[in-house]
Amino acid sequence: MGNIHENIKKDLLYLYNELYCLSQCESAGNFFDKKFLRSLKYKPEEVEEVLSSSVDILDKKKTGNNSEIISNIQTVEQVRKYFEDNLLVVCQPNISEEEKSSVLKKVTLEEIKHLYQIVFGISLADKCKKIDAVYRIRDFFENEKRTVDLTKNLY
Questions:
Q1: Cα separation of 76 and 71, whole Å?
Q2: Helix, strand, or coil here: 94?
Q3: In the chain, where are the structural domains located?
Q4: DSSP labels for 112-139?
Q5: pLDDT, tens digit, for every residue of 16-75?
Q6: Which helix (H) or strand (E) holds 47?
Q7: What is the pTM of this model?
Q8: How far apart are CA 31 and CA 98, in angstroms?
């Protein structure tokens, strides 16, 4: 992912450099809108400096929020194991609300979104709550087991 960001950054810098050089020509007013030319007021070196510092800030934010769950769990099987060991208890009918909330407090919404992304291959809707995502993941694994049982009986 970082490689893509670097390529985008290089492309943006290249485009800005080229446009900046063109804007310095006397005939630039014939080809470009004046408002557009005024927006090219920064030197390419300044733009490069700002882009590099903003990328560093984004990287710090990403690594700051990175947890063991996000960094260690990358496959559906790892999600299944983690889910069965830590989150499945939330889905049990005999668990109290206090116990549910205490288990859910140990896991952030970002971590649950990460698990959901691995299992379903799509990102979780922003409006979705932790408990809803946990139930969806549970349903996925239960349906998977049922499918395996059904296919065993076909042959």
A1: 14
A2: coil
A3: 2-64, 68-152
A4: HHHHHHHHHSSPPPTT--HHHHHHHHHH
A5: 888 888 888 888 788 888 888 888 888 888 888 887 775 554 444 444 445 777 888 899
A6: helix 44-64
A7: 0.55
A8: 67
